[in-house]
Amino acid sequence: MRMMLPPSTERRLVDRWLVSFFRDYALPDFNRAVSAMCRFYHLARPRVEWFEYLDWGTTAGRTYENGKIHLVHPENWQRGRKYNSERQWIQTVHHEMAHYLFWTDAERKADTFARRMVRGLQIHARAARLNGRMAARNGHARRLPARRVRPRAGTAG
Question: Where are the chain's structural domains?
Answer without folding.
Answer: 8-104, 106-139
